[in-house]
Amino acid sequence: MEIMQKLQFFFFVFTFLALGFEDTLALTTCSGTVPMKYRKETISIEDYGAVGDGRTVNTWSFQKAIYRIKHLRRRGGTLLYVPPGVWLTGSFNLTSHMTLFLAKGATIKAVQDTENWALVDPLPSYGRGRERPGGRYMSFINADRIHDVIITGENGTIDGQGGVWWDLWRNQTLVYNRPNLIELMHSKDIIISNVIFKNSPFWNIHPVYCTNVVIQHVAILAPHDSPNTDGIDPDSSNNICIEDSYISTGDDLVSIKSGWDEYGISYGRPSHDITIRRIKGSTPFAGVSIGSEASGGVHSILMENINIYNSGIGVHIKTEVGRGGYIKNVTISGVNLYDVHHGIKINGGSNDHPDNKYDPNAIPDVRDISIKNVWGVNIERPGSITGIKDRPFTGICLSNVKLWTANGDVIPWKCTDVSGCAIDVRPRPCTELTGSSTVG
Ligand SMILES: *[C@@H]1O[C@H](CO)[C@@H](O)[C@H](O)[C@H]1NC(C)=O
Ligand SMILES: *[C@@H]1O[C@H](CO)[C@@H](O)[C@H](O)[C@H]1NC(C)=O
Ligand SMILES: *[C@@H]1O[C@H](CO)[C@@H](O)[C@H](O)[C@H]1NC(C)=O
Ligand SMILES: *[C@@H]1O[C@H](CO)[C@@H](O)[C@H](O)[C@H]1NC(C)=O
Questions:
Q1: Which of 12, 91, 272, 313 is the most exposed place for a label (fewest CB within 10 A)?
Q2: How many CB atoms lie within 10 A of CB 142?
Q3: Does the reported pTM lie above 0.70?
Q4: Least distant ligand from the CA of 142
Q5: Dihedral of the alpha carbons of 189, 35, 271, 205, in degrees to the nearest 10
Q6: According to the model, what pLDDT value does residue 220 have?
C-alpha cells in the first residue's frame, strides 16, 4: 500500500510539473483502456533485409517480418523495430500481438505504384467505394480481424506520399477508391500513439467494425488542398478514444460514421461510446463532425476540449434523407474556434448517395444533442440548424455558446425543422430553440 501511495504521489507531482498551473490536475485520459503491452521479443526490420535508403522497396521485408511474428507466436507478442531511415514499401498487413515501433527519425514511406496497387472488396456497410463504384485500393497499412496491436514509437512518420493519388482524383482518372493510410477492420484492442501520419492518399486512420481503439499523441498532416484526407474516421465502431492530437488536413479532422444508405442500414452496426478530446487543428472542412454516412446509427458520443482555427466549420453534424439510422446522445463541450467560417452547422441534405436504390423513406432520427461552452472569435457565420422536413431534429440544446464575428456584425442563427433549447447563446439563437435567456 505504502509503495502504491508513493507511486501515486510521484505521479501526481510529475503530472503537476508537466502540465503547469493553468491545466486541470485531474486530466482524464484513455490510457489504460487498452493495455499497453511491453513485448518480450524485439526484431528489427533490418534483420529481414530491409534497407532504409529511401529507394529500396522493402515490401517483402515487412511481409516476412510480420509473417514471422504471426507464425512464431512468441509469448507476449513481438515488437517490430523500424530504425531511423526512410523505409520505402508497398502496403502490408499487420498481425495480432505485435507492436510496430518507429524510432525517432524513422519514416515508413508508401511506394507510388498506383497501377499495381492491390485491390480489396468494398466495405459491406458502403456497398461500393466511397468515391468510385466497385472495389477499393487496399490501405497502405492494414489490420483485418486481429487484436492486441500497437503502433507507436518516438514520433516516427508514416508517409502515404498521396500526391499522385490526389492528382488521379483531380484529373478524374481514378479507377477505384483511393487507399486509406491505415485501416483497422474487425479488430480490437488497438493503440496508436506517438506517430506522425503524413500525406495520406485518402482518409488517414479508418477504424471500421472495431472495438477498443485508443489513438493518442499523434500528429496527422496533409495540405489543406489535398482531397478527402480526413484525419480519423471511426466507422461502425465502439469504445474508441481519440485524444491529445494535432490534425491539419484537407478534410474533416475527426468524423464519426456508420455506413452509407441502404448498405449501412442493412449492415446495422452503429458507432457508439466514442470520446474525442483535446484535439487541435485546422482544415477547410470541419473540425469535428458526425456523418454524413451514419446509416448504422451513432450514439453516446463525447467530444470535449476541441480547438479549431483557420477552418471551414467548427462542429458539423450532417445527414440526409435515405441515410436512415440515427444520431443521438451526443455531448460536445468546450470548443474554441478562431478564424472559422461557419461555427456550428447541423443539417440534413448532404445529397450524395451510393446509387439510386436508397430508400427515400429512410429518414434519419437526430436528437438529444447538447453543445455547450463554445467560444469563437472571427466567425463569419455563427450557426445554422437545418432539420429534415416533417422529421425535425429534436432536443438540440445549446448552452453558453458565444460566437463573435470579426467586425462585430450580428449574423443571426438560421434554423428550420428543429426544436430544443438555448441558454446563454450569442448571437441570439433562433426562436425554434426555446428557453433562450440571452438577448444577442
Ligand atoms: C492482406 O489482407 C488482405 C485482406 O484484408 C488480403 O486480401 C491480402 O491477401 C493480405 N496480403 C498479404 C500479403 O497477406
Ligand atoms: C513525441 O511528441 C510528443 C508531442 O506530441 C512529445 O510530448 C514527446 O516527447 C515526443 N517524443 C519523442 C521521443 O520525441
Ligand atoms: C493524372 O494524374 C496522374 C498522376 O499525377 C498522371 O500520371 C496522369 O498522367 C494524369 N492524367 C491526365 C489525363 O491528366
Ligand atoms: C450518453 O452518452 C454518454 C457519453 O457521452 C454515456 O456515458 C451515456 O451512458 C449515454 N447515455 C445513454 C442513455 O446511452
A1: 12
A2: 20
A3: yes
A4: 1
A5: -70
A6: 98
